[in-house]
């Protein structure tokens, strides 16, 4: 017993020296963590004084981690956390400080830091989305006969959300998103989860609003009554999605603040199955995306157009399907979202894909509207006919065909001309002139 006590004291002294050299200011390890290190090391092939063996023994690392998870609180676990940081099985021995975690670990493994990726991707893509939306407005205001419609107003609201989205990306990175959770102070963990709560609400509203804007745009270019009914049905579905998931997400925990306070297990609250909620919102969003993008295809299929026109249309709708691909890739990140014990690190991929998805949706929705502006700037690339190098401003064009052309955006009788805008001048494939 005396010898064991001497060895343990020597081990703890060495350990404390290691820890003190790895940080400028550290408190002592929690007692439960020290006991786990002692007990599991004595049961292993490592000597208590051999920190190299302790740092590289994967089986011992796992045993200590399980012991800490069983016998320590979450806060104590983060303060004593030992985690495998890479395939070489180096472990991180982390201590708590008053306001911040350690800067270097006792075993020499470098802490992961993806905070720049989080803020960089967020600011870049949100800026691109805002630029394209600005071009959309400029194009509408500078195209004779074109006016800002309800679809533009809805997209304007999404643009405001983009500003908030980009700002939250920076704020989240400054509060630990991109770092391992045990390298983030307890106060910042709670702030991170609070910001993530609002980030989630903005994301869940921006997606259906973007689709509603696109569907309102469909109403301005496709006049057939039966088609309009389908558009109205999808608009209703997106409104239902918006209300349902906003309400469910706001009250994901009761009381509401449990969403950002329950992480340490000390705040009493009742919460939904957050993982199931995330999967349902993602799957329904993908279904609505596919339905929205597929809806106008039969209308376009009935029209004959030049190869250049087809390429332009395919590019516009191709960007839309890229949003679907992003949504599917985001599903992979939801797997980690379900069972993570390292939220500030494992939420990175989920956050990045979400930040990309919203601005790309805005870009997709704005492409048809900025086409007239691009046609004026690049007339040869975006002209609709061989004789049209300056671009069409109204619903007229020069055709050599014998049949009088009609536009996909031609209005039905007794409707307001100002509510319809040309997507691209197309010829009908049949002789009836009916869509």
TrEMBL record:
Task: Quote a single Gene Ontology cellular component term.
Answer: side of membrane
This protein's source sits in the domain of life called: Eukaryota
Q: Where is this region: Disordered?
A: 388-416
- Which cysteines bridge via disulfide bonds? 32-72, 36-67, 46-53
Q: How does it sit in the bilayer?
A: Lipid-anchor; GPI-anchor; Multi-pass membrane protein
Check the UniProt entry and state the signal peptide residues, or none. 1-22
Residue spans crossing the bilayer: 117-138, 150-172, 192-219, 231-251, 282-301, 313-331
Bias (Polar residues):
388-402
| Domain named CFEM: residues | 4-119
The cellular location(s) given in this protein's UniProt record come to:
Membrane; Secreted
Going by the UniProt record, its keywords in alphabetical order are: Disulfide bond, Glycoprotein, GPI-anchor, Lipoprotein, Membrane, Secreted, Signal, Transmembrane, Transmembrane helix
Task: List, alphabetically, the SMART domains matched.
Answer: CFEM
Give the similarity note.
Belongs to the RBT5 family.
Q: What is this protein called?
A: Related to integral membrane protein PTH11
Q: Which species is this UniProt entry from? A: Phialocephala subalpina
């Amino acid at each position: 017993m005396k010898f064991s006590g001497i060895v343990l004291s020597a081990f703890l002294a060495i350990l404390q020296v290691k820890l003190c050299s790895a940080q400028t200011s550290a408190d002592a390890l929690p007692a439960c963590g020290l006991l786990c290190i002692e007990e599991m090391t004595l049961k292993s092939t490592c000597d208590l004084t051999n920190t190299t063996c302790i740092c590289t023994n994967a089986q011992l690392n796992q045993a200590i981690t399980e012991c800490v998870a069983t016998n320590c609180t979450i806060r104590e676990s983060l303060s004593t956390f030992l985690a495998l940081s890479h395939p070489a099985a180096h472990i991180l021995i982390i201590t708590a400080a008053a306001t911040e975690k350690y800067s270097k670990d006792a075993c020499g493994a470098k802490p992961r830091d993806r905070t720049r990726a989080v803020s960089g991707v967020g600011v870049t893509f949100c800026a691109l989305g805002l630029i394209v939306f600005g071009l959309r407005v400029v194009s509408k205001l500078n195209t004779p006969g074109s006016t800002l419609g309800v679809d533009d107003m809805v997209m304007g609201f999404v643009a405001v959300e983009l500003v908030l989205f980009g700002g939250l990306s920076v704020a989240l990175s400054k509060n630990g998103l991109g770092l391992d959770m045990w390298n983030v102070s307890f106060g910042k963990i709670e702030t991170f989860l609070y910001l993530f709560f609002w980030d989630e609400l903005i994301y869940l509203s921006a997606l259906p609003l973007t689709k509603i804007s696109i569907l309102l745009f469909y109403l301005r270019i496709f006049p057939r009554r039966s088609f309009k009914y389908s558009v109205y049905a999808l608009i209703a579905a997106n409104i239902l999605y918006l209300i349902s998931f906003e309400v469910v997400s706001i009250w994901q925990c009761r009381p509401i603040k449990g969403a950002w306070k329950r992480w340490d297990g000390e705040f009493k609250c009742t919460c939904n199955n957050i993982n199931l909620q995330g999967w349902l919102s993602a799957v329904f969003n993908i279904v609505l995306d596919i339905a929205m993008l597929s809806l106008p295809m039969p209308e376009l299929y009935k029209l004959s157009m030049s190869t250049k026109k087809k390429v332009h249309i395919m590019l516009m709708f191709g960007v839309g399907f890229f949003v679907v691909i992003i949504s599917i890739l985001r599903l992979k990140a939801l797997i980690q979202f379900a069972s993570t014990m390292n939220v500030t690190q494992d939420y990175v991929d989920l956050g990045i894909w979400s930040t990309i998805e919203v601005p790309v949706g805005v870009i997709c929705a704005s492409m048809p509207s900025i086409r007239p502006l691009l046609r004026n700037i690049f007339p040869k690339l975006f002209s609709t006919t061989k004789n049209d190098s300056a671009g069409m401003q109204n619903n007229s064009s020069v055709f050599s065909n014998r049949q009088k052309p009609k536009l996909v955006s031609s209005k039905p009788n007794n409707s307001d001309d100002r509510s319809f805008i040309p997507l691209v001048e197309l010829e009908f494939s049949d002789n009836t002139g009916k869509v």
